[in-house]
Design goal:
By secondary structure, the protein is an alpha/beta fold. 53% of the residues lie in helices and 15% in strands. It is elongated, with a radius of gyration of 18 Å.
Length: 214
Amino acid sequence: MAVRVYLLDDHEIVRRGLAELLSTSGRCEVVGESGSAAEAIRRIPAARPDVAILDGRLPDGTGMEVCRAVRSVDENIRCLILTSYDDDEALLAAILAGASGYVLKQVRGADLVETIERVAAGESLLKGEDADRIRARLTGEDVMLRPELAALTDQEKRVLDLITQGFTNRQIAGRLHLAEKTVKNYITSLLSKLGLESRTQAAVLMERLRHPHD
């Protein structure tokens, strides 16, 4: 059976090119597409694709935010982040969002189709040594004693630690036996105390605190 794919990119010509490439391969079926993060968050769960290909940067958000939102509704939907940047920050953001991998926009068509099939089969492309290295940087509790985090309550620190491990709000709520709305409130509070705007910024801060001389 063909892999059901949803496309998110704010450039129509990119979406058309991807749709044609995937359709002509005979191995993928495009079941929907969007040009904005807000539209994608609404439409992807209803379309129920096997794999959603999400542009990393959008006018109204990021592919990572869409991935997190979609997977909080349906964890069976696999996500691939499409990015122009091959660096630790892109990898980190993909891990935190719960994506199965990230693909550079320079990827060859045949390689993209193969990657989609691997992800649809349940394989994570973020299990290699690069992902392990990033995950290793995000583990450990000693950093929680750093003065930069002194303003956080113990519960906020627990939430922050789970954020840096890539858990969704729903998963954090389950682990800490809290309501999902309560988790959202904790996240809003800890980001405000740290002067940050997003989960990714919080994770990058934690990485820098753990490895100040890298």
